[in-house]
């Protein structure tokens, strides 16, 4: 199985890449940087891990650079994990349009364009594929300063549900994994006090385990999840 | 070229479990004569793009077999 995954260089993307490689899947991984950890994985899995340097701020060259020149139209894609994201956090009263637009390009516009070509590739090869967008608990529970970020993830949740409806009859599934706060670089700008307050709002009073999120992604990609589509699967330590 | 397009049509028709076409002609309407729905047309676009590297729907809707042939001849 060939899986396209964005944001593979660190955090959840790196963990998921590692987990899926262990399961024997082939990963087409995209990221802006090649971290040491990613490099180690590339050396460990020279055949099953393919890496492309690409910045999702660029939505124009998706077809040419990613699908035509790199993956190739002859390669079937069985799954897409839309994981890369920018977190621009601030109060709404400080909204900076340039930062907001950049975040929308990375978190929404380019992932939607990637989905376009993933779907095309699935159609071409008659693949009953699985698409997973990584969403955030901030869509469902408000956090001060995260309104703009949450709005990009909310857009993905709406897009995913409609993707499921549009392509379900071809056997293509689309789900969102709604992750709670994890101890990754994404939340590194938060102070310990802020983090603790966030964790106190969960049933389990602790950060979400990254491995648990990666495992759930693996499940949603697999055939075992073949009847699950159009859903938001919360892996958030019970943020209720 | 017409023969290749017929083959592409029949791949989609077979995927649907329907009876293959024996021939196509330029005036045939993709929706009303051949019976393609919007998802079939999406599949058609993708299959033609794979063969000819051209997105037939890129600049608007295509209705007939003739319109497809014209786009491919232009290339």
Summarize it.
Chain A has 240 residues and is α/β, with parallel strands linked by helices. Chain A is 42% helix and 16% strand.
Walk me through this protein's architecture.
The complex is a heterodimer of chains A (240) and B (75). Chain A has 240 residues and is α/β, with parallel strands linked by helices. Chain A has a single domain, classed as 3-Layer(aba) Sandwich (Rossmann fold), CATH 3.40.50.720. Helix content of chain A is 42%, strand content 16%. Chain A has seven helices and seven strands. In chain A, strands 3-2-1-4-5-6-7 form a seven-stranded parallel β-sheet, with helices on both faces. In chain A, α1 crosses α7 (210-221) and α4 (97-124) packs parallel to α5. The longest helix of chain A is centred in the middle third of the chain and has 28 residues, at 97-124. Chain A is globular. The mean pLDDT of chain A is 96. Chain B is mainly alpha-helical and 75 residues long. Chain B has one domain: ACP-like (Non-ribosomal Peptide Synthetase Peptidyl Carrier Protein, Chain A, Orthogonal Bundle). Chain B has helices at 2-15, 38-52, 65-74. The longest helix of chain B has 15 residues, at 38-52. The radius of gyration of chain B is 11 Å and the shape is globular. Chain A binds chain B through residues 73, 119-121, 123-124, 126, 167, 169-170, and chain B through 15, 39, 42-43, 45-47, 49-50.
């Amino acid at each position: 199985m060939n899986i396209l995954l964005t944001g593979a260089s660190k955090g959840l993307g790196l963990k998921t890449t590692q987990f899926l490689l262990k399961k024997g899947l082939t990963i087409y991984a995209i990221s802006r940087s090649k971290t040491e950890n990613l490099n180690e994985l590339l050396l460990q899995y020279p055949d099953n891990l393919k890496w492309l340097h690409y910045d999702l701020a660029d939505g124009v060259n998706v077809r040419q650079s990613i699908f035509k020149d790199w993956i190739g139209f002859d390669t079937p894609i069985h799954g897409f994990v839309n994981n890369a994201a920018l977190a621009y956090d601030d109060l709404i009263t400080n909204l900076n349009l340039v930062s907001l637009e950049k975040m929308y390009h990375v978190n929404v516009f380019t992932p939607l364009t990637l989905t376009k070509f993933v779907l095309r590739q699935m159609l071409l090869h008659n693949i009953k594929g699985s698409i997973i967008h990584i969403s955030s608990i901030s869509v469902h529970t408000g956090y001060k300063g995260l309104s703009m970020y949450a709005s990009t993830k909310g857009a993905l949740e709406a897009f995913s549900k409609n993707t499921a409806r549009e392509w379900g009859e071809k056997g293509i599934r689309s789900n969102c994994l709604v992750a709670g706060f994890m101890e990754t670089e994404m939340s590194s700008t938060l102070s310990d006090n802020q983090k603790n307050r966030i964790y106190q709002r969960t049933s389990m009073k602790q950060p979400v385990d990254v491995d648990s999120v990666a495992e759930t992604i693996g499940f949603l990609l697999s055939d075992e999840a073949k009847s699950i589509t159009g859903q938001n699967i919360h892996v958030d330590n019970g943020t209720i | 070229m017409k023969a290749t397009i017929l083959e592409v049509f029949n791949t989609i028709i077979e995927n649907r479990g329907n009876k293959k076409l024996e021939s196509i002609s330029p005036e045939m309407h993709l929706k009303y004569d051949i019976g393609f729905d919007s998802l079939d047309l999406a599949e058609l676009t993708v299959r033609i793009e794979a063969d000819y590297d051209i997105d037939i729907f890129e600049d608007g809707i295509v209705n007939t077999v003739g319109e497809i042939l014209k786009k491919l001849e232009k290339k």
